[in-house]
Design goal:
The structure is a single chain. The chain is an alpha+beta fold. It has one domain: 4-Layer Sandwich (Deoxyribonuclease I, Chain A). Helix content is about 25%, strand content about 25%. It has a six-stranded mixed sheet. It has a six-stranded mixed sheet with strand order 5-6-7-8-12-9. The protein has a two-stranded antiparallel ribbon with strand order 10-11. A hairpin with a 4-residue loop joins strand 6 (about 95) and strand 7 (about 100-105). Helix 4 (about 120-135) runs parallel beside helix 6. The chain is globular. The protein starts with a strand and ends with a strand. The relative contact order is 0.16.
């Protein structure tokens, strides 16, 4: 199976930048989208005619956050959110159950300017880890999405100037990612490429992407039990259309 995750920074905008053609070129079995910024009917309208089952979870606030899963194979079941009211208003989580695994896509909350939302983010990380561990008690889990954290210095171009100052690279956020790894979830890109510097997000500021001044904040994590099934992980940083690029996983069952 070829799985892809992409924060599209607005599904309607990115469709206007050639998303459908790029989807056909990448040809994943499943693609998970974050920050669609659209209601369910708007996602389906924007993607009308594609050869995928479409599942979308939208924020109560229109034009904000939101996620989607596009799957060639119809999942056994699809569930929105985590069942925790405080964290279930922004359309950030979709769980699709397949025969041999759960696939969870997530758009983790950003801690915001001046880290105003950091405490909320810390609680989110705890609740989300509980969600995926509960799923894992039934069958293995694949997690993908924009986790809004650069885990290690290798995952961010200017680590020292951003540490504990910028949302996505505070120790509390790093601790949240550590907790997932310590709980047995494998960062698949680092599993295959432990020393490679490659990023998945760049600021819109002039020259950031062309000069590769970026962050790796988009991930595929899997249950430890799926390690033997992993074939490759990749970051498609030549694919444009968003401030993020697609990331992916090849896995065999």
């Amino acid at each position: 199976m070829k799985l892809i995750s992409w924060n599209v920074n607005g599904i309607r905008a990115t469709v206007g930048k050639g998303f459908i053609e790029k989807l056909q070129e990448m040809n994943p079995d499943v693609i998970c989208l974050q920050e669609t910024k659209a209601q369910v009917d708007q996602v389906k309208e924007a993607l009308f005619g594609i050869d995928y089952h479409i599942y979308a979870n939208s924020a109560e606030r229109k034009g904000y956050s939101s996620t989607a899963i596009l799957s060639k194979t119809e999942p056994i079941s699809v569930t929105d959110d985590m069942g925790v009211a405080e964290h279930d208003t922004e359309g950030r989580v979709i769980t699709a159950e397949y025969d041999k695994f759960y696939l969870v896509t997530v758009y983790t909350p950003n801690s915001g300017s001046e880290l105003a939302r950091l405490d909320y983010r810390v609680d989110w990380d705890r609740v989300f880890l509980n969600h995926i561990k509960t799923l894992e008690s039934k069958k293995p889990v694949i997690v993908c999405g924009d986790l809004n954290v650069a885990h290690k210095p290798l995952d961010i171009k200017n680590d020292k100037s951003n540490y504990n100052k910028s949302a996505g690279y505070t120790q509390k956020e790093i601790d949240g990612m550590d907790a997932m790894v310590d709980a047995g979830f494998v960062d698949t890109f680092r599993h295959f490429y432990p020393e490679e510097e490659k990023f998945s997000w760049w600021s819109f500021r002039a020259g950031a992407r062309s000069n590769n001044i970026g962050w790796r904040i988009d991930y595929f994590l899997t249950s430890e039990s799926l390690k033997p099934n992993l074939k490759d992980a990749f970051i498609l940083n030549e694919v444009e259309g968003s401030d993020h690029c697609p990331v992916g996983l090849e896995i065999e069952f």
